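Lecture notes, part 5. Sequence design as translation. It can be helpful to think of inverse folding as translation between two languages: the language of shapes and the language of residues. The source text, in structure tokens, appears below.
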């Protein structure tokens, strides 16, 4: 049986474990830095670890926050797992998914799309043809990206957001829940509304 390691004992990790078991895989170790967490579902959480444990099986970083996920991925990038895909997802044979990326139930990813490493493509999201999604991006449940959309590193597309074709989302930006994006969004901002507009910028 194929086994995976997880780093992160959060709520997001529970969903990742469901995908692991849905694929008939096993779970070897669950790691976390928080020494107050001892158990996740029926699994022991290991807070004292070394590189030999981390690299004992392919590793997924099971943390929903993009910033923290990047920090942990860079710190533990020893034996990163191939993308983990729920069996109900529909993914074109012409799509490419980077290592450490997790694809949730009922996702659709169409031809020509390129998705980077350590991304989350959440439940029932739709990513149309020829999209480019860089590392550490989170596409939330029921979000829809039309053809040719580019989402730069670290950005978060909120639940139910819609992005029209050929739009570019800058790096480390947040698109609000239910937003409709009809023009490019700059880096390091939060954009909300219909149509989506930046309301604040951050470092």
């Amino acid at each position: 049986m194929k086994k995976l390691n997880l780093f992160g004992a959060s709520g997001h990790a529970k969903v990742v474990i469901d995908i692991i078991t849905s694929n008939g895989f096993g779970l070897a170790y669950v790691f976390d830095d928080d020494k107050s967490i001892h158990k996740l579902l029926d699994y022991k959480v290991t807070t004292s670890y070394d590189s030999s444990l981390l690299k004992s099986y392919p590793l997924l970083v099971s943390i929903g926050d993009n910033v923290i996920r990047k920090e942990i991925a860079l710190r533990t990038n020893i034996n990163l797992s191939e993308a983990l895909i729920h069996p109900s997802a529909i993914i074109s044979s012409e799509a490419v998914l980077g290592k450490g990326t997790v694809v949730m139930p009922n996702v659709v990813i169409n031809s020509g799309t390129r998705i980077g490493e350590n991304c989350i493509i959440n439940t029932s999201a739709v990513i149309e043809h020829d999209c480019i999604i860089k590392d550490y991006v989170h596409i939330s449940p029921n979000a829809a990206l039309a053809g040719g959309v580019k989402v730069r590193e670290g950005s978060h597309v909120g639940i139910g957001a819609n992005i029209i074709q050929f739009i570019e989302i800058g790096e480390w930006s947040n698109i609000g829940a239910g937003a409709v994006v009809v023009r490019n969004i700059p880096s390091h901002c939060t954009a909300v509304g219909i149509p989506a507009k930046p309301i604040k910028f951050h470092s």
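The translated text above is only one of many valid answers, since several sequences can fold into similar shapes. Residues 60 and 90 are 21 Å apart (CA to CA).
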